[in-house]
Amino acid sequence: MKEEKIKSVAFQNEELRSERLRIFGVLSFVALFLAVTAVRLFVIRTASGATPWAWSFFLGAIVIAYELWTLRKVDGALKANGSLPLQFWILSTILETSIPAFAIIFLNTQLDAIYRLLASPAVLAFFIFIILSTLRLNPWICVLSGTVAATTYLFACWHLGWRPPVPGIPAPITQSNVSLNAIILFVGGLVAAGVAGQIRRHVQAALREAETKRKLDAIQHDLQVARSIQQSLLPQEPLQIEGFDIAGWNRPADDTGGDYFDWKILPDGKVVISLADVTGHGIGPALLATACHAYARSNFRVGQELPAAVEHLNQELGADLPSGRFVTFVAAVCCPDCPEMEMLSAGHGPLFIYSRPEDRFMELDAHALPLGILPSFSSAPSTRLQLHAGDLVLLATDGFFEWEDDRGEQFGVQRMEEVIRASRDLAAAEIISHLYEAVIRFSNGTKQQDDLTAVLIKFRPDKHGLTQKEAVGVRN
Fold this sequence. Notes:
By secondary structure, the chain is α+β, with helices and mostly antiparallel strands. The protein has two domains: 9-215; 235-471, PPM-type phosphatase domain (Phosphatase 2c, domain 1, 4-Layer Sandwich). The chain is built from twelve helices and ten strands. It has a five-stranded antiparallel β-sheet, covered by helices on one side. A five-stranded antiparallel β-sheet has the order 2-3-4-5-8, covered by helices on one side. α1 runs antiparallel to α2 (53-79) and α5 packs antiparallel against α6. It starts with 8 loop residues before the first helix and ends in a 5-residue tail after the last helix.
């Protein structure tokens, strides 16, 4: 698999920071070399006076000056968020890796030339530069370092009188080992290239992970903002209407959802209560739900029949819905202290009506197809209910009764009706709360897969002016 190339500012900066580390490594090595030389020469006096130590300090000073100049270039590139040209890396590698060859030629002159090629500590210095070349995060630079080390080592040996052995003619070990050393230096460069490639991949992976985390954090922040905006579109105040106790509740499966509920008080005193469920959940359906919310608000007006309002809503919303998307929608109209309620469902069902006097549930099917499926809206006549004291009307999305437990069994309509029946004497908000708690207990820890939205309408003609506790909706 071909290695992915990263040409980002972040990776360029990582290369430059790694180069700074490499420079400090070279400076530390040279400083240690000069310190050991000074101790041997001036403190413990184990060095021969004939040794050209001036050359050691002169060569060390040149290396330090060059590395400090390189460090300045690297720091400048870092501050400018730039990079250094390829020629810089190549020239720097050639110059630095050639330094031990000059040390072999000009230092340790008290040794015979033939032994200097093998016994000089400068031979080992080649490996220091090869190892440090891995910090340049470029395998080809490491190969170049090994190649330059082998080539300049052979050049130093040639300068001191070494000649390669002739095939078929026995050669002393001092002659044959030079060739072996050169091969080892070259192989060292190949090994360093493998290490550098692995380091480079780790750096790339770390940068990808950091970039991904940054993007995820930004997305999460945007989703939280979208959630707060979407939640702010839901009714913020309890609905006060004589003779009714009405509560609404919503919990999306993700940060944002495709459900919403709403109520609107018309100038003539009537109240339009609506609930919608856009296919899917997440940011896309949330945007469509927001559009549906706006269109619904603008279409419910005084004197307009409920089917006509929903028909206009279908026309306006259908123009915005992408292919394959639709919205189930239900609206209920009631007026203060009036037992009659009108309901119309576009693909949303079943709707649950509980009769308190008869202690039984009735399920009401949809009157028409969901919004956005067809350009024209054709509906059966709306349903008009005659309510009695204690009757309940539940508008809920299918996330409640389709929630599965850890065995794959759904909560179901029957369990939902049982919870509502058991809570029928409570306020509307408390009934919804009991329903949600029952679903959570049944799920046995399984994750919520769909948005949950419910509006419960309780007819209470004997209650005028409900208390704040009874009227407020449960919200999350």
